[in-house]
Amino acid sequence: MRMSQKPKPSHGLAACPGCAEPLDSGDRFCGACGYDLSAVPAAEAGPDRPTVAIGTPVTWPDAPPREPGSLSTMTQHPGDLPGTDSGGRDLPTTEIRTDGPTPPEPVPASGSASASAASGGDFELAAPDPRAAVRVDQAPAAEAVPAPAPEAAPAAVLCVACRAGRVDTDGYCENCGHAQPRERDHMERELAGVAAVSDRGLRHHRNEDAFAVSSTTLPDGSPATLAIVCDGVSSATRPDEASAAAAEAAGASLLAALPRGTHPQQAMHEAIVAAAEAVNSLAEEPGQDGAEHDPHRHRNAPACTIVGSVVASGLLVVGWVGDSRAYWVPDDRSTPPARLTEDDSWAAQMVAAGLMNEAEAYADERAHAITGWLGADSYELDPHTAAFKPDRSGVVVVCTDGLWNYAEAAEDMARVVPADAADRPLGAAQVLVGHALDGGGHDNITVALVPFTAAPRGAGSA
Hints:
- The protein is an alpha+beta fold.
- It has helices at residues 113-119, 239-257, 264-282, 346-352, 358-363, 401-404, 410-416, 425-438; strands spanning 52-53, 186-191, 194-199, 209-217, 223-232, 303-312, 315-321, 325-330, 338-339, 369-370, 374-375, 384-388, 394-399, 445-452.
- A hairpin with a 2-residue loop joins β2 and β3.
- α2 (239-257) packs antiparallel against α3 (264-282).
- The longest helix has 19 residues, at 239-257.
- The protein is globular.
- The termini are far apart.
């Protein structure tokens, strides 16, 4: 069972007749393929597999007793992974996997990102190629381009798809109906020691992922880097706002807690709680379409998943709720990589209960139905956290299922992460997003890379 379906839009179509892209109320054209929705009867929606949440409560075992504020966390070498969760419980050893489910059918050699979209009858205008993208940082205020003189008429904006039609104020071409690229369609950011890239993908008409990356200083003067990645639940209302609010709140919480000397694992737990509160508050705010004031319409509260990582003082800390993941990829590829998180999902639940093997569970259409998320209509919040102390250098890959769907097992992820990822995290993140686009780009894609540098052998701990 999934979260309640979206209400039927005012135009009577739940999905585009041409490409099966989900539609929003008030759409005049399909944002993916440009279909004129006013002249076509409703059609059956094609299969799609966005991140969704199931509505059936999941029976989890009672947590063992734990002293308030306790961080009964052991530190391990990579071979000792996975570590413990926020309740002090050992994570199942099956989570560290070098084998994966049955690999997907190979993509034809000619199937580039844009060709994959076109062959499926989807939006033929490909998302920006991250491997060739030009990152544009926000200009300082002093260098801002001055606003045009009041008497100057604004120049007409031409459609990037047909190159002929004028773009209306709603962001759609008046000639072909294509939605124009928006700021969140492709985002990149790089700081010292961390980088992230997010892309709309080739099937969705907007990017419902969000991220936050930053760095700070601990009380002893040592550096700390952090990355938060959130994936909006597509079956909920305003998923893009939910992911953005969660990422911003979690990042701000970590930046406030770490310089005060809060243990990184406790800081991660508090950050997830802060993110949940930020998403919950969205349920109390009216949406832009005013649907919350209509008593005849039911809409799920804004919701998203979250995963984050903090690297500080030789520790690698991860935290998550949902099915967004973190992977450990050592610089020395002769040593094994590892998956550091366990999904809150239907597939993971089936595997843990012994009802299916991993290949069967992840091949099921219900595999990506999540059993844990941030949102006002979620069940009791249960943030998962774990701390590790690797004895070698590597990189932490923090990502949504838009990436790991194309590199599910730890070894698969290690194969697609560039060898120089620790030295060039932004370039490596661009390559990973490109890998997902070449694989079909069926979902939004977001990945953050956090390099981890191990202390030299024999060096004392900070």
